[in-house]
Design brief:
Radius of gyration: 19 Å
Number of strands: 12
């Protein structure tokens, strides 16, 4: 079941990404959620999206105090405001890639398929190091039964990881 859902998600994402390269749209993956957004014409190196797409894809909104999401607000440098916000006609555009650089958020771009992935901010990642508490995750065992780290809360757990790089 899990494999089927995973394969379906990949096929759907590839289909949306293929459509994105044909039009002035891109796919943004933010907080693990893929959203198709319109991009500004002639935005070759940066990702300029509408403010409504910004909110729809990331839940961030532009306020007088900065770019905010719930109680979290990032002030935009006053001398660099034009690097983040531009008004063309009746549409207000926001440079999401420049904002990610400002808040030190990792990003990966698949230019061929028009997909932009935004990872967790460094402050978010290092929060686990200061608390010495591993983030919860769920993985299947050899029989396919799902187990979460939270199921073992209060017990000693040895995590063994491996990476090919």
């Amino acid at each position: 079941m899990f494999k089927s859902l995973f394969i379906l998600m990949i096929v759907t994402l590839c289909t949306v990404a293929a459509r994105a390269t044909d039009q002035n749209t891109r796919v943004i993956i933010y907080d693990g959620i893929a959203t198709e957004v319109a991009v500004a014409p002639n935005s070759l190196t940066d990702l300029w999206i509408t403010t409504s797409d910004l909110t729809r894809a990331t839940r961030f909104v532009i306020k007088p105090q900065g770019v905010c999401r719930d109680e979290l607000c990032f002030p935009l440098p006053k001398n660099r405001k034009t690097e983040f916000v531009a008004k063309k006609g009746s549409t207000t555009w926001f440079n999401l890639s420049e904002f990610a650089r400002l808040i030190k958020q990792p990003r990966v771009i698949d230019e061929k398929n028009g997909v932009w992935y935004f990872g967790a901010r460094a402050a978010e990642q290092s929060g686990y190091l200061t608390s010495l508490e591993a983030p919860n995750f769920t993985l299947p065992d050899l029989n396919g039964k799902l187990h979460s780290l939270a199921d073992f809360r209060g017990q000693k757990v040895l995590l063994v990881t491996w990476a090919s790089w």
